[in-house]
């Protein structure tokens, strides 16, 4: 594994640098967001700017990760560890594969379980719609799309306006939020529309 090259690529959707693991809650959040996405890799002993510091106690870091994976993530995660030396400094590499049991929840400091997804280099709280999409896409039940006037109105709107959020969709069709969410989940699962999550908002576009 070329550690230097990976670090030069910088943090992103599937790569995160950690100087050290200080909190099971925080690292569980990152690991869960990787598992709910396409998988990812943690480089422990690396600063945010890419400087390699190395880890002081590899056993301690491994213990924290294992604890977070088993007790702070639900369903539990199965991290894969690798030790890489660079200039006599030890970097602990932790791979979190994409999960087949989505969605994974992580235990927050408020004692609640939340679903996170990876957006660029951040782990972002998933909306109810994204959680439903993750849940149903891993259950492979298949989605039967019924094109009612509501779906048609949405697609016509996207044809003109390019994007829409849940609130706008509710107003467009004069329907409640739960009904709107159900329609959006089905359309995302069937590949008709795409969901875009940023740190500030979530919106939908035609696929």
UniProtKB/TrEMBL annotation:
Name of one Pfam family that matches: SLFN_AlbA_2
GO molecular function: ATP binding
Signal peptide boundaries: none
Domain Schlafen AlbA-2: 11-125
Keyword Nucleotide-binding recorded: yes
Keywords, sorted A to Z: ATP-binding, Nucleotide-binding
InterPro entries: Schlafen_AlbA_2_dom, Schlafen_AlbA_2_dom_sf
Highest taxon listed in the record's lineage: Bacteria
Keyword ATP-binding in record: yes
Name of the protein in its database record: ATP-binding protein
Organism expressing this protein natively: Mucilaginibacter pallidiroseus
Lineage of the species this protein comes from: Bacteria, Pseudomonadati, Bacteroidota, Sphingobacteriia, Sphingobacteriales
